Amino acid sequence: MGETNVLQEVDKNSYQQLMEEAQKLAHFGGWEVNLLTGAVKWSSEMYQMLGYDPLITEATFKNFIKILHREDALYVKKNLETLLRFHSSDTYDFRIINTDDGSIKYLRTGIIVKRNKRGLAISMTGFSQDITGQKIAEQKIESINRELKTFFKVIDDVFFSIDTVAYKFIQVSEGCEKLFGYSQEELLADFSLSFKIFHPDDNEIIEAGNVKLAKGETIVIQYRIIGKNKTIHWVESKMIPSLDKSGKLIRIDGVTRDITERKYAELEHQRTEKRYRQIVESAQEGIWTIDENNKTNFVNKMMCDILGYTSDEIIGKDLFYFMDDEGRACTEEFIERSRRGAKENLNIRFITKTGRHVWTNINANPITDENGAYKGILAMVTDITERLLSDESLKKSEANLLTVFENTDMAFVLFTTSLNVVSFNSQATEFYLKYVNKKLKPGTYALNYFPKHKRKFLTTITNKVKNREIVSYETNFYANNEVDWYDIKWVGVLNERMEYIGILLTFKNITEKKLLELEREKITADLIQRNKDQEQFNYIVSHNLRAPVANVIGLLELLNDPAINEEDKKYVLDGISLSVKNLDSVIIDMNHVLQVKELMNETKETNNLDQLVNDIKVSISDIIKKEDVVIDCHFDVENIFSIRSYLYSIFYNLILNSIKYHKCGVSPVIVIKSKLHENKIQLTFTDNGKGINLENHGEQLFRLYKRFDTTVEGKGLGLFMVKTQVESLGGTITVESEIEKWTQFIIQLPV
Fold first, then answer.
1. Exposed/middle/buried for 155, CB within 10 Å: 0-12, 13-18, 19+?
2. Phi and psi (nearest 5°) for 554?
3. Do the Cβ atoms of 51 and 99 come closer than 8 Å?
4. Does residue 260 contact residue 283 with C-beta atoms inside 8 Å?
5. For the residues of 466-528, what is the DSSP string, one character each?
6. Fewer CB within 10 A of the terminal residue: the chain, N end or C end?
7. Residue 135 forms beta bridges with which residues?
8. Domain 23-133 belongs to what topology?
């Protein structure tokens, strides 16, 4: 071999070594394929990249295909076919599976195709680079971007970046459409839309924020926006500015969130606090708070008026500063009890700025922190100086009246102007024990001795008395199933200066007198009713009795005719028999009516309404089962003291009436209720039946023999009997109805 050839061989070997080193450093491998012979060459780095040992595995196209990722094999084959047919070079990425550990690698391969003069591919040369790290990084970035996109879609906050040089949005999240009403596309295309959303009344806030941003300051501002659909929202924006080297604002990144609910809550809290402050400052009671060291930390205007000091003169001063030694001793004990959690109501005497003594009533509650530690006292303070003077005058009046009232048949109770009991006589004690089951005690609140439903009425009375009116009325009370009537009188008590200082309540038993009046009223009502009954009987006699009697007389005259044959005689006798039966039916009905009057002498007893309805259910159980009747009872008044036979008949007739006149195909539902209403017992019977045309039949509904629905058997006697019995008990009955929907009978009975 010549010297030149030797040098060339050395240069060639050096070049190959350099190439091998370069491939290792660059992490790529080279390869060649002779398309004519099928010979394949891989560089050592290529072997390592593919995971093959060059001493064991031969470089072949088959071994390359073997390690291709199954999902990329077809892709690589198609690309190679296209390259060999049409192109001279190409670059593409694919995956391989490492034969050593089964791990997946990403390769980027560049291929150059050599062709002969006729254009046929004769060889391929390529370089493959391991880009696994790059691909994994790209996948991670893509995953992060995807997560960010999802995050921005889900979250209602609007993230944005603004190019302040080009005056455009760089980006804005999808939440913008929900908050502003404008889509991403609209805002990215037209930056001027962002100015339209600012509420004009908040322009100063926006301008002040822009000034700070221009200085490079991060801002957090709250303002209102007007959405595309004209709705107004409160929002909070945090914006971070970016300045260039010259200090010019070039970019703003920020986030805007909807704070409408929070803002309205804050505004409502401010309004509530303002109202609270107004209430506190305009309260008719003094409000005073002290801390755990007995130092004043708040007083309202009324408290200042009571003591005669300004707020600044009171705040910070010790509570004991405003009282004498006697008051201090009493108050120290009260504060010590408050420290242990006690609530107090007591009278304390203070000294005003002018040196005048003022008596106050204090309702005090301890103030504690979240751990229950004592932090001071909140006191509601009322000036009772004048009231105490009035109470003293009232007690003098009481002493003068006591002797008189203890020797009378009248009960009396003396109250202060604030309705606290001052005194009472023994008759009043007996009265409240008998009818209220409470013992009168001096100093207690008057309204506690009256039912809750009467307290509004009593408040109205006391207001009238305060206006110098004398209020008197008659009412009844119940005890041991007996009713007693009383004449009640409320009178204002005046001192020698004609000043109103209290109220005198008197009770005088007028039961005997009232019973005589009621008996007189009952007799009068009974006479009126008897007159009505007489008219009704006259009607029955003139119509219902006269008709069958006339028929009998006429038919008897026919029988006297000698020319009458046997067949006609039988016809006449049948007619006489029918007329006699009708006559008998009318007489029986008249007996029923008369029996109602006679039963008024029955003894009254306590009737349980549930038991009464259950007895009726048993008596008509076959009808209830046949018609699938539902009877629903709601009795606020469970027992009625009355004549049982009357109550039974009233309930029986109204229940049976509702069943008889139910709608075809609809199961009857009857709802029966009882309650106290204006000192009477109110019974209501409501059904879902056919209803009654009250406009046409209302006036004649309760009359004898009046029927308006001939589809059901009846004589028109039931409702007449019900009305008669209700009125005999001193009650009334009315009816309301809607055709084809419902009917309701309303009965009012005396208690």
1. middle
2. -60, -45
3. yes
4. no
5. HTT--EEEEEEEEETTEEEEEEEEEEEEE-TT--EEEEEEEEEE-HHHHHHHHHHHHHHHHHH
6. N
7. none
8. Beta-Lactamase (3.30.450)
Q: What is the pLDDT of residues 540-579, one digit of tens each?
A: 555 555 556 666 777 677 777 777 777 777 777 777 777 6
pLDDT in tens, 392-448: 666 666 666 666 556 677 888 888 888 888 888 888 888 888 888 888 888 888 878
Same fold? 155-265, 387-509: yes
219 strand-pairing partners? 239
Check residues 13 and 562 and name the one with the higher pLDDT. 562
Neighbour-count burial of 111, counting CB atoms closer than 10 A to its CB (0-12 exposed, 13-18 middle, 19+ buried): buried
User: Whose CA is closest to 728, among 526, 592, 534, 590?
Assistant: 526
The answer to whether 692 touches 663, Cβ cutoff 8 Å, is no
* Architecture of the 155-265 domain: 2-Layer Sandwich (3.30)
Confidence of residue 537 (pLDDT cuts 50, 70, 90): low
The pLDDT confidence band at residue 344, using thresholds 50, 70 and 90, is: confident
Q: Indicate the burial class of 464 (C-beta count within 10 angstroms; 0-12, 13-18, 19 or more).
A: middle
Report the side by side order of strands in the sheet with 168-172: 168-172, 158-163, 249-258, 232-243, 219-226
Neighbours of 713 (CB within 10 A): 7
CATH 3.30.200.20 fits 283-383, yes or no: no
Fold category of 516-592 in CATH: Helix Hairpins (1.10.287)
Single pTM value for the model: 0.32
Residues contacting 110, CB < 8 A, separation 6+: 89, 90, 91, 126, 127
Looking at the domain covering 602-750, what would its CATH class be?
Answer: alpha beta
Domain 387-509: CATH class, spelled out = alpha beta
pLDDT single digits (tens) 85-114: 888 888 988 898 876 677 888 989 989 999
Helix, strand or coil, per DSSP, at residue 294: coil
Element (H, E) at 111: strand 104-115
Domain segments of the chain as ranges: 23-133, 155-265, 283-383, 387-509, 516-592, 602-750
- What pLDDT digit, counting tens, does each position of 176-220 carry? 888 888 988 998 999 988 888 899 999 999 999 999 999 999 999
Burial of 124 (0-12, 13-18, 19+ CB in 10 A): buried
